[in-house]
Amino acid sequence: MEPRVWLITGCSSGFGEQFVRQNIARGDKVIATGRNAATKLAHLKDTGAAILDLDVTISEAEIFSKINEAHQIYGRIDVLVNNAGYIESGAVEDIFIDRIQRSLDTNFFGSLKVTRAVLSIMREQKSGVVGFIGSMGGWTGYPASIAYSSSKFALECLADCLQAEFAALFENCVRFIIFEPGYFRTEVFAPTKPLVLPANIPGYEPFNQVLAKGLNELYGNEAGDLVKGVARMIDVLTGTGMAAGKELPPRLPLGTDGLESIRAKCQATLKICEDWEDLITSTDVVIEAKQ
Asked: Which of 74, 86, 142, 148 is labelled catalytic?
C-alpha cells in the first residue's frame, strides 16, 4: 500500500507533534503545520515531515491558498487532522466576549476553514478521512469552560453535518470522525501557559484562585497517555491495529475520564426523555380522525 499523506494542524506540541512523529515512523508522509512554523516547528525538521506555516485564523481565501500549497507537495491529501486549538478559561459572567470569540476563531472556525479547503481535493480523489480533535468538554459544560467548550460543541455539530451531507450526496467518499479526549498529558496546562486570568468582577476572584490551583495540580497528573492516545487515533483513522476490521465511528471518546463523562451525559439525557416523555410528546399536533 502506498504511504498515506497526512495534513495535520497545530503541530508545535501535544497531539499534533505526536501525530507527526508516529506517522513518519509508520512510513507515511506528513505535512506538519502551525503558526510561526520557522521557530515553533523547528524541532520537527529532522523528522522528514514537510513543514508549512499555517495560522488557522487567517482569512478563508488565504487558507485555501495555503491548502493548495500543501496539496502540491505530494499531489494528494489522504488524512486531515484538525488539531489546532487552545484553552481560554473564565466564568460566563466574568470572561470578556472577545476571549470567547478568539477561542471560536481558532478552535472552531479554523477547523471549518481548513476542512472546507481540503474537501474539494478529497472529493476529486474520491477518498479521504477527516479527523477532528474534540473533547469531553464538547459534551458537557464545566465551570469556566464557556469559551473552550462552546468551540468543541460546535465541532460536534460540524462533524455531524459533514457525515450526513457526504452520506446523502457523495456516497461517503470522504469520511469524518470527531475524537473526544479526556485529560491527556500534554503541555496545555503547563505553568508557562497561564489559563486563569485575574477576575474582572471581584466576586469571581476566589473561584479563579481555586480553579488555577486545581489546574496546576492537574498538570502532569492527567490520566491519559499522550503517545497511546495518538496511536489509537491513528489506528481508527487508518482502520489498522486495534481498529482493524471495524467501521469508522462518527465519534469516539478517549480515556477513562472521557468515557465516564460522556456516558454520564448520555444516561442523564435518556432519563430526561423517559421521565418527561408524556409532556414532551403532548406538544404534537393532534389530527382528528375523519368520520
From this structure: 148
